[in-house]
Design brief:
By secondary structure, the protein is mainly α. Helix content is 52%, strand content 0%.
């Protein structure tokens, strides 16, 4: 869901929903709104950085445009220099808590499953104890 005010500020009056936007739109209209001017300035900057390659606007509205699938295909997860993502860390923490509660942690501690978990558990204990 997108705010109708945001759409009107970017694309002009009469554009209150994503379905109202022209699917063939390739550039932002020139409007006297601050948001529109900022967006056009960003596009102008990216165009200048790209050099001779033209930069056009392409809508990728969920459930409305075929470009949605192309956009989703191009998304990649930032691996944060091979560090664990937040979701990976939560899964690791949850697994450690389950092992701790079931009493299996002592058996698998020698295998490295609990490595680093003690610090996280202590940190959580401190937060809960406050």
């Amino acid at each position: 869901h997108v705010s109708p005010n945001l759409l009107e500020d970017l694309f002009g009056a009469g554009n209150n929903s994503l379905a109202d936007l022209d699917h063939n739109l390739s550039s932002l209209p020139v409007l006297e709104t601050h948001l529109n001017a900022q967006a056009r300035n960003l596009i102008a900057y990216w165009s200048s950085v790209r050099g001779s390659k033209a930069l056009t606007l392409q809508l990728a509205r969920q459930g409305l445009d075929g470009a949605e699938y192309e956009f989703a295909r191009l998304l990649v997860e930032d691996r944060n220099n091979e560090a664990q993502s937040y979701v990976d860390w939560l899964v690791h923490l949850h697994r450690g808590i389950q092992l701790e509660l079931s009493g299996q942690r002592k058996k698998e501690e020698g295998e490295g499953v609990g490595a680093g978990l003690e610090g996280a558990m202590a940190g959580l204990s401190n937060l809960i104890g406050r």
